[in-house]
């Protein structure tokens, strides 16, 4: 299953991506490359809408993990929304859930990103 | 009959091959995506740790579906490697944890049973998933 990555929102501080497909050992490098291009020196929040992710393996997790480590080092965070039960289970197995900001739906995540945008505009 | 998978095949092509061969009767269940995660972990381990030392490398997969029990039987020729001896996931804070080494722990936790044997130079791993049991409410430790 291919991976489609759609950039939903980008600002100096935040980046939001919608993922569709599988995050596996073939597609994970594609996400890694996209993040390397999109994350700027001032990015502190990376948000993933995972509603369309059918399954994830350790290769995909490594990319999320790497992003999480980078954001934590910048006192920022990684947010995820709309994970399926199966994808969530894999995150739970590797004990990443406590370090993620989890939103139940895209509306909550949008509100959160809008708040960041308002703060940036001040 | 087992499917033969080349180490250089893409994950998408492997999963399509599996769907074509086994069909909805075997794969239409709540745990099929866990099954795909396990297959990707196995395939990427073969690519990273076995195929790099050989000119040509293939592995075999047979899926047996019976009364809600799905068994994934993986086989490949190569040095002894027992994937059931997975290191547990680190309890360290995120900042001090290594990024890799999570694949075997994921397979172990997603499966209901794992059996490994090594005979005549062939590694055989059987991973069992009970598709009748819902795992959604499981607590992971």
From TrEMBL, chain A:
In alphabetical order, the GO MF annotations are: anti-sigma factor antagonist activity
Xref: SUPFAM superfamilies:
SpoIIaa-like
Q: Which family does it belong to?
A: Belongs to the anti-sigma-factor antagonist family.
Coiled coil start-end: none
Which InterPro entries does its entry note?
Anti-sigma_ant (IPR003658), STAS_dom (IPR002645), STAS_dom_sf (IPR036513)
**Which PROSITE patterns does its entry note?**
STAS (PS50801)
Kindly list the residue ranges recorded as spanning the membrane. 45-65
What protein am I looking at? Anti-sigma factor antagonist
Species the sequence originates in: Marinobacter halophilus
- Alphabetical keyword list: Membrane, Transmembrane, Transmembrane helix
What Gene3D superfamilies does the annotation carry?
A: STAS domain
UniProt KW Cell inner membrane keyword: no
Q: Where is the STAS domain?
A: 4-116
Automatic annotation (TrEMBL), chain B:
What sequence ranges are listed for the domain Histidine kinase/HSP90-like ATPase? 9-128
Q: Which organism is it from?
A: Marinobacter halophilus
Q: Which domain of life is it from?
A: Bacteria
Q: Which Pfam families match?
A: HATPase_c_2
Q: Which InterPro entries match?
A: HATPase_C_sf, HATPase_dom
What's the name of the protein?
A: Histidine kinase/HSP90-like ATPase domain-containing protein
């Amino acid at each position: 299953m291919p991976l489609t990555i759609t950039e939903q929102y980008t600002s100096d501080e935040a980046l939001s991506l919608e993922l569709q497909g599988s995050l596996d050992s073939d597609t994970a490098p594609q996400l890694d490359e996209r993040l390397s291009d999109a994350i700027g020196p001032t990015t502190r929040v990376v948000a993933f809408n995972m509603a369309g992710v059918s399954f994830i393996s350790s290769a995909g997790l490594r990319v999320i993990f790497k992003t999480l480590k980078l954001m934590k080092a910048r006192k920022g965070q990684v947010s995820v929304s709309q994970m399926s039960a199966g994808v969530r289970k894999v995150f739970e197995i590797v004990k990443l859930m406590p370090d993620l900001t989890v939103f139940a739906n895209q509306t909550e995540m949008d509100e959160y990103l809008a708040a960041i945008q308002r703060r940036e505009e001040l | 009959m087992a499917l033969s998978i080349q180490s250089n095949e893409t994950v998408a092509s492997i999963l399509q091959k599996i769907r074509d061969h086994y069909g909805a009767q075997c794969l239409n269940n709540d745990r099929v995506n866990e099954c795909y995660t396990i297959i990707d972990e196995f395939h990427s381990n073969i690519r990273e740790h076995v195929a790099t030392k050989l000119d040509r490398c293939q592995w075999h997969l047979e899926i047996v579906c019976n009364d809600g029990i799905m068994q994934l039987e993986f086989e490949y020729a190569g040095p002894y490697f027992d994937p059931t001896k997975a290191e547990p996931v680190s309890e360290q804070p995120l900042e001090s944890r290594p990024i890799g080494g999570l694949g075997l722990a994921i397979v172990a936790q997603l499966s209901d049973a794992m059996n490994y044997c090594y005979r005549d130079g062939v590694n055989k791993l059987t991973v069992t998933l009970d598709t009748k049991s819902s795992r959604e409410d499981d607590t992971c430790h």
